[in-house]
User: Fold these one by one.
Assistant:
Number 1:
Amino acid sequence: MSTPPARVYEHLTGTSRRTGRPVREVALEWAHGVDGDWSWWVPSGDIVIAILNPHQDRAPLDDATELAVELMTDPIWPAWVRAALAWRYAVTVRRGYASEPDDEDPDRRAWLTGLLADWDEAEHMVWEEIAWPGPFADDATSQWRPYRLRWFELQERLAAQQVVWCRARLEDPTVRGVELGLVLRRLWDVGELTDQDLLALAPGWRGRFLRQFDSDPFSGLGACVVYGMALAEFGIAAPIFEHIREHRRRWETSVHAPLVGWYGTPEEVDELWERALRPDADPRVVLGATAGRARLEGIPLARACDLAAAEAGRHDPFLRVALAHGGRPRLWARDIDTDPRLGARAAELAVDDSLSEGFRAAAKGLQC
């Protein structure tokens, strides 16, 4: 990152008045003459406002966002402007416009729908070709970091440079804990995780996955659990569960319980099943028990969750496990109600004839 210049709006509009040239022309020339980067989000915003209103440094947010999208997709602007605008307006769009309640005005609804679609394409285009700084970037917008991180977790597709960022973190032996779990999940979700990636993590895996163990605040599952799940589903033999089983007391609920679903013996699954039926069962216990039964009996995870719900006399949390882990991509959010894909996943379960009427009805109640 480099230090951005101040008073860019005043410079652009003043030069325009003095020379009689359009502000857009002045701004484009200036932007190509400086060595900016994605962190110059204030100057990039000044460019937008100067073009829209050369007489006063303010403009309607709707107009500014529309122009930002236009500039982000116009290759005539230098990479730093397009990246800085993507960084500057991401939270405006994702936290602001995307969460607006349905407006009774059909014109407003149509405009919002179009804006969000245009933003998706513009943002993806920017990070396809320009290096992505990542959700943990240390800049002046750090108060927006939680929103950036959450959106990254929920993205259904990743741009090329986002994949590059994830892979670099995966290959960096100093990246551990929450960040390591994040990049594993994201690469796996979008089909970019390979067996070679997983094998490359094997040497020294305990140092990266267990010496700085933290349950992820978003998913509730530590990186070690995600790694174990991926190894099993990729069919890669590894001693990970033997080590966890040997030290079970240390990671009883946080690691051992969920991984029983992918590695546990019938006896271990039965033991976990009894724990999962208790009213205060930890979600990780529920995941391990139901995934284990599904694996051992050769039935879908949703069916195993349905059986558990019938025995327990309640649908939650079994329905949540079926929704989160029964389809692809997984819905990793611990607070799954906040995932915008929940309604569609619930709709799939609601019409699944292999499930009980009560379980399907409970899923139908979550459709939105």
Note: The longest helix spans residues 106-129.
Number 2:
Amino acid sequence: MARSKTPTSKALNYKLPPNLKVPCVLQVNNNPFGGKGLGITTSIATSLLAIRSPDKESFLGFIIEFPLPTDSIGFGQCHHIDFSTRKASPSNTWDLTVKFPRDDINITYRAASEDETARYSAGKKHMTWVVVFLGNNASVSVQGFGIPYSNPGHPAEDWLRYTASTTVIGGLSFLDIIQQRHFSFLATQPEKTMMARWSVASLAPKFDYGYGIDQSWNMDRYMKQLHDVKGHRFQTTWNFGTDASHSKIMWIQKYCLDMTTEMGSAYFVKHPASRKSGRWLVIVKMDRDFWKHTEWSQACIHGTMKLVVHPGLLNRHPLTENDFVIRVIEPLHTRLGIKEFESREEANNRVSFEWDLQLHEAKRQVDAVCDLLPSAAPNHLFCDQRCEGSELSAGKKALMMSFHRDLLRGDGFWQTMMSATSAVDEMAGNMRAPNTGGQGQGLILPMLPSVSEADQCPLRFYLSNRPLGFGIITTGPNSNDTPVLPAAVLAMHATMGTVMASGPTPAAVNKFAFDLHTVSHNVVCKYNIGRTQETRSRAALVIRSFQIQVECDAFKILLRFPHLGDEAASDDKRGVKLDWNFHLSASYWLLLCLGSESLPPLQKDDSNILHEFKTLLAGSDSLARLRERVSGKISWEVYVAGETVRDTEIMRLMKMLVEVADIVCTTPSLAHTEDHLKKWKVERARGIAIDEAGRMSRGDLYSIWGNTLLPCLLAGNEEFIPLEVKSYHDRDDDGNMRNRFGDDARKSALEFLTATGWPVYRVRGQ
């Protein structure tokens, strides 16, 4: 798309005809293929497509719609895009879209004769033969190719199974049919209509966002693009991932940089809660126009504000309606230089604002998307459960990364599966592996007491037939508390090994960790009834992991005040409680293994690792006084009066626990920034599980999933509520949208991947 020189808040108007979908039949060696819409006795519908839009891909092609059965065995529900609601909706067909190139192509049109139209009971009076010839350098692309399909008893199951070599019609395989050099269609529209609305000339110009191909993190380039590339909001892109949406925060960053240099008069009042505290109330005199700035509210939403005090003279500071009152927490290690005065008239403080927009979080997500480029190096270790202990070949590693890219583009696997390599033939033909729902330790799903009877067999089938190890689980409005995902994750753990679990928020991760721990113990408790010590199973060790320094600080506070629980979390430099939760944290497990008097003792069904760790700690002379304090044998005062355990040793013990955990639960951010968690993710994780994925951005998912196609389970609510985008409606003074990728940003990881047509398991029971 040519870049507009004049900023506009609307898409460029090329006077395009509307999109076109025309029922047709495809002639293959004089035999009809498809044509359900023309009355042919077949379950396969075929239609010619002309998709055109000024701000997304426009193309000519045809769609083949294969029937899907009612999901009774556990294959899953496929979805398609409902363009009236712009949401992913359940579909009763499995769709394959063949796209023709725009260049090196010739199209002819001929009105069908009366005899030809009379052959079809549902045909129209005026129909058209459309013949497409591909040049020597032209080839089709196929959207949806390789997406799992199942319809027991239907011949399409064999047609579509890799390598799609089963004969379909006229001596040709399905792959032969869609790779012909010329295609002949009979469409149910008059010749003039087809010539006008199904032609290359009727398409919009080739689309380009205008931001270039380099999407790596570069603030200077972003600022230039902010100035140069303006316009309307782009439509949602469903069939390829984009890493351009990070530009949405650059205009806020620019505003914050400008505001840092603007000073205002300020009057500080000591917070009435405590004259000794570092908390102040600040009244800042602002210009009247200040409150009209949209950027001000966005800066407050997206970041943390820092007040900078400047020396200066101010004789009077009368209270006006433009005064802005802020609560300020004085930094622990920095003096603000605040002066106290007897009256407002004497006050002479001057301040300005600085914002921390957490740009490192935006950079993390941009880097995660860039890791999916073909040139990127692997950011996880490769693992292949089918070849345990053996190193994957370079070809297989490259293929796994290519499959991962294809999956996240949402366009199917055509490009990868058509590449002429032996690795494709070896691995693509077995896309069903690995199995994420096996019978590790004998804990089969029907024994899970918390999974409804209606879900047990279908869920087991779904987990045991996961192409590429990828699965999606959704719940309806009445099944939010059904612990199917924890059951599925535990099945993944029993089959494949260690799992990293995450969610969109710290609270979601806390709940996920609790559910996994609870379900694991319930399953093991039931399984072990009547079993001997030698045949008993053990619960998974689930650790809710945080920043290691935060853990250490909380641990030391708990040594002094054992009953504080979650309140042991420290405050950050702004006086806000840090993200930390006691239950299942490394502090929790370490105190438990040290024999805490405030916690229940280890149970016989707890992980063997915990019992071994407790024995290890009990045999350490250097930890004797720490054990005495934790068990309540000595007081805090006695403990600190003697030799105490150093912070480095406490953190080492915590890292040891995390290292041997079965399931580590943490946020995408910490999995990327905390060294010991990043190491665990890269080297130890054999699977990824995401709860509440309907509230997680794609950038966060890619950040924790990596690019080496680890088995992954996503779960969330099927209603697909749009993600919150604070700047969605904001415009600049010329009417240009501040956030041109707002629609993309509102689509969660769950909705985007569901919309690809990947089979989704919908929870049945309550």
Note: Residues 253-360 form one domain.
Number 3:
Amino acid sequence: MRIFMPFFSIMFCLVICTNHAKGQDFLVKGVVFEKGTNIRIALAEIVNKRTQLGIGSNDLGIFEIKANIGDTLYIRKRDMLEQQIIVQGDKSIIIYLVRAVNQLEDVTIKGQSKKQDLEDIKQEFRNKGVYKDGKSSVLSSIFHPLNAIYNLFGSEPKNARRFSRYADNEIKQSQIDVYFNSTIISNNSNLTGQNLEKFMLDYRPEFDKVQYWNSYDYIKYIKESSKKFTDTLGKGK
């Protein structure tokens, strides 16, 4: 019997240590996007069901909240469907929220937030040298966008000019993405899966055409173009 005592003692200690480790809260880091777009969602509410503690995402959609493995996090934002996830570990998480309405308010898209972010990076080009050598991972690019931009373009004058062209195009494309994205297209057409992806590639409008459009102009374009696209698919059978 004494032979087995050390074994049981070790197993007991392992169980106690494991349960103790599971009981330790840690910081979970994440970022919130609108599904189907590259738009980051600021001021989304993230609540831990167990602790009832909540925080808001910052201007880049990034948040940090204390949690434990198995905790349920609720993510909420006005006019968007609530999302919930189970914490699996301490790895960074990406959350996609779906817009809850079929049509958006009649607004003129300014893209000021995106523009300001890119202008800030331009200023960094003027103030600093190379920010970091090497390549950035996908998560690193999401949580540290400056790193990814610097790694891509560097700090030489010719690369700064390349970035300026990149920034101008990004601003234009982000304005299109606000309304021409998979969520809004799905809500205003019967397209899904590969057909939806092909439509988004083949019928993506040019900025010069849409720069003065409002939400209703986009939805009208989506409905008319998706019907034309569907008719084309029917002829191909």
Note: Residues 28-97 form a domain with the Immunoglobulin-like fold (CATH 2.60.40.1120).
